[in-house]
């Protein structure tokens, strides 16, 4: 299959004759990376699928007015991050539970997830990640798992590079503490 760059994909999307084909190619190019980014935030597979669908719907609706001030990938990640946070907030409000209880629920769902089957170290690490504040967890995931530069993270999360570096540093210290105490 021919790999198109983002400019070519956007041109296809903006052409009414190839709009659907262009969007399908964008989805194929980014859906797996978006899914795993979302999954690391919401943890549950079904929730991640729902959030990915919402992300793609928002992308479809917003692509026509996308001004290319950032890269397509950055723009999609920003939508996915915002949709993930919105999903977690709705979950908290729906069940009228404090954040700590939602994190316990997510932690419990890790134990039954086949993705972590018989990998105690990975399970312990993921549970430690869930104990981080939401922003630190997102920053850690983007930096550690995605190896994303702070400059790009800054565009996605719309915050300064210095704040992101501080969040990552605090997340690392907390993870070290959590992992050494458990």
List the keywords:
0% strand; Rna Polymerase Sigma Factor, Chain: A; 9 helices; 182 residues; mainly alpha; 77% helix
SSE-based structural type: mainly alpha
List the secondary-structure elements in sequence, H or E: HHHHHHHHH
Please identify the oligomeric state: single chain
Instruction: Bin the helical content.
Output: over 70%
Determine the mean pLDDT: 85
Low-confidence stretches: none
Indicate the CATH topology of the domain at 1-96: Rna Polymerase Sigma Factor, Chain: A
CATH C-level name of the domain at 1-96: Mainly Alpha
CATH superfamily of the domain at 1-96: RNA polymerase sigma factor, region 2, helix turn helix motif
CATH architecture of the domain at 1-96: Orthogonal Bundle
Number of strands: 0
What does this structure look like?
The protein is 77% helix and 0% strand. It has helices at residues 6-14, 19-42, 45-63, 72-95, 99-111, 120-130, 134-145, 150-157, 161-181. Helix 3 packs across helix 4 (72-95). With 182 residues, it is mainly α. The chain has a domain at 1-96: Orthogonal Bundle (Rna Polymerase Sigma Factor, Chain: A), CATH 1.10.1740.10. The chain is elongated, with a radius of gyration of 18 Å. It is built from 9 helices and no strands.
